[in-house]
Amino acid sequence: MKSVFEFAAKHIEPSLKRALILKLLSKNVNRTYIAKCTGVSPALITRYAKGERGLHDLTAIREIDEALKELSDKITNGEMCGSEVYIRIAELTMYVLSKKFACGIHYLATRDIDPLKCNICPSIFKISPQVKTNNND
Asked: What is the pTM of this model?
């Protein structure tokens, strides 16, 4: 079985970053500022915008979309940048995993889990108050 951390780094975190970057680009936020605040290179921003990275649409999950919108608003308004954004993306990655929102993606990517029986992510990524999205307190 592939490590859940490898899976998250390859599939979940990039998909969250892509969704965030697309929200920022739709607000006409400067790419240099986006790079600074997200820790993503300008070249990778272009790859996200072209759909070459972060291939899974996690914005279909209402609370994830709302959390990313809130994060994009804070970045746009200068309220959050750098390590704070990194931490928030890590929290959202753990949230997606803990709620089993990524089980279908994991199954399609590796075929080494049974989403109905697997309980690894909820066991590892127990939700704490710091990890919850603001809409699920």
From this structure: 0.88
